Structures are given as structure tokens and as C-alpha cells.
């Protein structure tokens, strides 16, 4: 699903038609619980993501799992807070169970690269080797509670396949749109200590650790303009010396 290759106008029009058809076919009324309906929703999302990849031709869009959210997104904060070791262990176990169900992600080899909390939702970014894969998981967990639900996940190419980020720049990695919440992550340069993402009217400060960043927000990852899906995210970088660089363009692999 890597859209690094140039696409033709005809491919772009076809992608738009597919996306419009998929979104039009998506059920508006929540269906009864059951694996059959869940599989259909994943299929719909897969087709939508494929269409967006072909049309945008930018960052990697990963296949999301699950759909939902609701009022809990109202607890979202633009600035994250860290997860405790116990929270990472508890939430991570449920996340890995979902991600590894695809058979492509080895939970026994997965390591947590980044983790953060924004209100009642936590996000964990995993990495595994053999195969080289990364996985992001957004899960509902009220602070202090042992309950984990409304899990959404995405899986894509691993960290080692990403190019090195310039010292004062960044590489945008995977981008997941869960139709209600979006997640993006990538590599931060050696001089970068802060990444701020502007998604329309929303601004979110990413978690930056060990040369990587991750962030989620309660909104779309792209917007429609003249019938075309457009990546509308903007990025500001804060450097180690306090300098803030505005509207920085990512380095692509």
C-alpha cells in the first residue's frame, strides 16, 4: 500500500470513484454484534484506505481495525501525558491480541516504541522484526481502570525500512484514519525535540522519544477538495535550542 510511485490522472479518478462508492456503502446504523459485521466493516475500510493511497500519493495509509469512539473523544487533550509501566503492560496486551490476529504481526517479537495518553484514550506504537513491521493501537481506557475497549489498530512497514530523518527535519511514517480518530507517526531528526501537528482546526503536540514521534486526534487525516482526498496536515518542529520551525515539509522515503 505504499503510494510512492507517481500516478496518472486516470488512476486518480478511479481512486476517487472507489472511495465515493465505499463511503456511500458504509452502514449508518450500528449493526448487531458479531464477527461477520466486523469483517465487513474492515473490508469497507480497507477499500477506502486503498483509494486514498492511490489518490493522495503521499504517506503510507495503514489498514485500521475497529470503528467507534463516541463521547469519550471529548476527553481528548492537545498535549499528551505519559503512560505508566503498568498501563503499558495492561493496554499493550489487549492491543497486541488484536493486531497479531492478522497473522502478519508477531506479538512475541513486538516491543513498545512510544506510548501516550490523551484523556480516556491511550495510544501505543509497536515494532516487531522478522518480518519488519510497525503497529499502532488506539484504545479506550479510563485512567485507573483495568478495562480496555474500543480498540483500533493499524499495521504497516517497519522502522528499519524508513529513511533517516535530517537533523532539523522529520520523516512522516504511517497515517491511520479510523473515520473519527486519526493516528500518525514517523521519525524525528536529532535536533528535533517537539513535533506539532495541525489537522484543520485541531492542533496536537506529539510524543517525541528516541528519534520517533506519534500523535492522534479526534478528526480526519485528510479532507475532500473538489472530490479529491487531500492530505491537509501541517507540521511545526521545535529544535533543541528552542527554535520553532513552522510548516516544515516531511522527507519521504
Fraction in beta strands: 25-35%
Within the largest sheet, what's the order of strands? 1-6-7-11-10
Shape: globular
Describe the main β-sheet briefly: 5 strands, mixed
Number of helices: 3
Termini separation: 14 Å
Our count of domains comes out at 2
Q: Give the radius of gyration.
A: 17 Å
Can you give the helix content as a percent range? 10-25%
What is the typical, i.e. mean, pLDDT? 76
Spans where pLDDT lies below 50 across 5 or more residues = 1-9, 18-68
Order of helices and strands: HHEHEEEEEEEEEEEEEE
Transmembrane segments: 44-63
Keywords: Membrane, Transmembrane, Transmembrane helix
Structure description:
The chain is of the alpha+beta class and 253 residues long. The protein folds into 2 domains: 9-58; 70-245, no CATH class. Helices cover 21% and strands 34% of the residues. The chain has 3 helices and 15 strands. The chain has helices at residues 9-25, 35-56, 85-99, and strands at 60-61, 111-118, 121-128, 133-140, 149-157, 170-177, 182-188, 192-199, 202-205, 207-209, 212-217, 223-225, 228-230, 234-239, 244-245. The protein has a 5-stranded mixed sheet with strand order 1-6-7-11-10. Strand 8 and strand 9 (202-205) form a beta hairpin. Helix 1 runs antiparallel to helix 2. It is globular and about 40 Å long. The two termini are 14 Å apart. The model is unreliable at 1-9 and 18-68 (pLDDT under 50). The chain crosses the membrane at residues 44-63. Keywords: Membrane, Transmembrane, Transmembrane helix.
Amino acid at each position: 500500500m505504499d503510494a510512492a510511485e507517481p500516478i496518472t490522472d486516470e488512476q486518480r479518478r478511479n481512486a476517487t470513484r472507489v472511495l465515493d462508492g465505499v463511503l456511500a456503502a458504509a452502514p449508518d446504523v450500528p449493526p448487531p454484534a458479531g464477527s461477520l459485521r466486523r469483517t465487513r466493516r474492515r473490508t469497507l475500510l480497507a477499500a477506502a484506505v486503498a483509494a486514498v493511497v492511490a489518490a493522495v500519493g503521499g504517506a503510507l495509509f495503514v489498514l485500521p481495525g475497529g470503528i467507534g469512539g463516541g463521547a469519550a473523544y471529548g476527553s481528548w487533550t492537545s498535549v499528551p501525558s505519559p503512560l505508566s509501566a503498568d498501563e503499558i503492560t495492561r493496554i499493550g496486551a489487549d492491543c497486541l491480541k488484536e493486531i497479531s490476529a492478522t497473522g502478519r504481526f508477531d506479538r512475541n517479537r513486538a516491543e513498545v516504541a512510544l506510548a501516550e495518553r490523551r484523556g480516556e484514550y491511550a495510544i501505543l506504537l509497536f515494532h516487531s522484526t522478522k518480518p519488519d513491521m510497525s503497529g499502532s493501537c488506539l484504545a479506550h481506557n479510563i485512567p485507573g481502570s483495568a478495562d480496555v475497549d474500543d480498540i483500533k489498530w493499524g499495521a504497516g512497514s517497519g522502522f528499519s525500512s524508513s529513511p533517516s530523518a535530517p537533523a532539523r527535519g522529520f520523516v512522516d511514517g504511517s497515517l491511520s484514519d479510523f473515520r473519527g480518530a486519526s493516528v500518525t507517526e514517523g521519525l524525528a531528526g536529532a535536533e528535533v525535540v517537539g513535533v506539532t501537528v495541525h489537522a484543520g482546526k485541531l492542533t496536537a503536540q506529539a510524543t517525541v522519544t528516541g528519534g520517533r514521534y506519534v500523535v492522534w486526534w479526534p478528526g480526519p487525516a485528510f479532507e475532500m477538495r473538489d472530490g479529491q482526498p487531500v492530505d491537509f496536515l501541517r507540521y511545526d518542529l521545535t529544535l533543541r535550542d528552542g527554535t520553532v520551525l513552522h510548516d516544515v515539509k516531511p522527507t519521504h522515503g
